[in-house]
Every structure is written in C-alpha cells, then in structure tokens.
Amino acid sequence: MEFKITSKAKTLTVVLMIIGILGIGLGLLCEMNHHNGEFLGQRVMANLLVDSFFFFGIGMGAMFFLALQYATETGWYASVKRIIEAVTGFIPYGSALLLLTLFTLTITDGGGVYSWMDTAHTKGDEIMEGKAFYLNKGFFWLRTIVYIAVYVIFWNGFRKRSLQEDKVGGTDLHFKNYKRGALFLVYFAVFVCTSSWDWLMSIDAHWFSTLFGWYVFAGMWCSAMIVLVCLTLYLKKLGYLPKVNENHIHDLAKWTFATSFLWSYLWFSQFMLIWYANIPEEVTYYKTRIDHYKLMYFLMFFINFAFPMLLLMSRDAKRHAGVLTAVGLIIFAGHWTDVYIMVMGGSMGTHAFIGFLEIGMAVLFLGFFIRVILTNLTKAPLTPVNHPFLDESVHHEF
Q1: What is the mean pLDDT of the chain?
Q2: Which of 61, 71, 265, 344 could hold 182 in an S-S bridge, CB 3.0 to 4.6 Å?
Q3: Is the whole model's pTM more than 0.90, yes or no?
C-alpha cells in the first residue's frame, strides 16, 4: 500500500515551521531589546547545535536499530521496516544541517560554544595545550567528515538494497544487509562515542567522562524509538499497515521502555561515580548544571526515568495508543532538554534560558523533521514486498 501525505499533515508541518520562524524572530527581538544582543550570536549558535544534533541523532538511532535487526536476522520487524527506513532517511538532511552548524562555529572560532577553537581562550592554558593534538580545527573536521561519510554511505546502501529486494526477491540482498549491518555496528560503536566527544563533550573542554559517549547514544536510541512508536500508531490510525498488529506495537514499546532504562542507568552511573569520587576537575560539570539548571536537570531525569517506569511497565500500557503517544511525547521533550542542558551548560552557562528563540528553533526543526519523514514514506511501499522474514512478521504473536 502506497502512503500519501494528508492535507492535514502537510498543513501541520507548514504551520510548525511558520510558528518556529515567528518564534525565532520574537526571540531575536527580545534578545536585542533586553540584552542589547550581547549574547545573541552565541545563543543562536548554541541552539543550532542543540537542534541539529538532536534530530540528526534520532536518524542515527533509527539506523542503529535497523542495522541491529539486520545483524541479528530478526523476523518480527519486517512489517515495520519501512517506517524505520523513513526515519533513517533524515540522515542526509540532518548531516547537512549539522555540518552547516559546525562550519559556522568553526569560522567564528567556536562561536562561544567551542572555547578550544579560540586561541584567546586556550593560550597559556596547560590543559587545553595538552589536548591540542586532538582538539584542533583540522583534526576535528577530518574526524567529522569521516563520521558523516561513513554514516551516509551505509544509509544509502541499506536503502538501495531494501528497494532492490522488492524487485528481485531472494536472499542474496538479505545476506548482504546482514553483513553490512554487522559491519556498521562495529563502526558505530566507535564513532558514536568519538563524535559525542567531538561535538558535545568538547564544549566543556576541561572535562571528560568515559561514559559520555554511551550516555549520548542511549538518548539518541530512545528518542528514535519514540518516533518509531508514534509514527506506527499514526499510520495505523490512518488505516495503513494492515499487517502490523498489536504485537509489533508491543515490541516497539518494549524497546522504548528498555532504552529509557538504559539511558537512566547510564545517567545515574555517570553522575554517581563522579559525585562519589568528588574530584574537583570532574564535579565541575555537574556543579555548573546543578547550580544553574537544578530544576530542569533533575526534572528531566525524573521524566525520562519515572514516566516509562510508572506508565509503560504493564503489558496493556504497551498496547494502548493513547498511553504510548502521551508518554512518548513527554519523554521526547525530556530528551531534547537533555541535549539542551549538555550544550548550554558548557557554552552559555548562567546566561542560558528557554525563551521564544529556543522554542521557535526546536519547533522549526520539528516541522521540517516530520515533513522529511512523511515524504520518505511516500517513496516506497509501506510493507516490503519480498523480505524473506515477511511471513514470520505477519504472523508475529506472543
């Protein structure tokens, strides 16, 4: 069955983007009137990094999940495969937006976000001079280009072979995806950590955590699962996906539940170990965020941990569209807040706050993100035609 974007969906995405643009405009005016634009450039660039990374991360989380299904030769997911692919289809757009943001930050000597890019801040700083072999613009861009190139190449290969499989059938393409999926997981295991260090952890250039990459990854994965659940429920409501039953939705909900707990475990592990050790160079990261973002920081953790635990624990909740949608949207906002605090805590510090600019930019990115995903869904049948595990998926039950 071919998917067609409804007029309501088109209108919604346009309205979101218009609201986003208006919000950004109001935010810029407020900044100029109240603070004389003192932190305007820094605030704009920090917000661009928040949203470009967050939505790019959702695409990457979906591609990790897709590769995981390939590498483990999972059967149940075949009926929702095209939904996963539609979300991964944001990767080339997200890559372009993230690269543009990073390029602008680079030519502005960090834009007040990456202090290590500004020699005025690093000169005479022993720690930064010691890290200069790694944190320098040339090597930073070499790593960034490699990350993005590998991601886009793998995404293009997965998508191309998936569409070919609809035409030729057989198992040859399936086994190619099986091998490429396993290979991608190897690359991703390394790159998701190092790219998190480069794009996010280096904002707090004096600080580091060996858990940081996995913590960021867990947030990306959980956010992607939320999008997959909500998108599946939306399509089912419109009458699409006749071969997707409540067991498929239950499985997607279980992944959302599990990744929420994974993120919570890593959040607590990183926080507890650093708090217990109480080493000044390490606790500075949390001191900044607790001193200036206490309510937002701990509320974000409570939402991302307690809501799934309390509301998604039962079997019935994992099959209830209303509960899944409500909890998913709340957790989605919670993980956006997580990225916001990671970026703003190290860049804007005490000058950060959520206003028209922050909300407007997030809504603009969200509208664009939704439109890209819905457009991706129109480019191929919603149910793979010749997937070798399709019959197993159709009869999936437990």
Answers
A1: 93
A2: 71
A3: yes
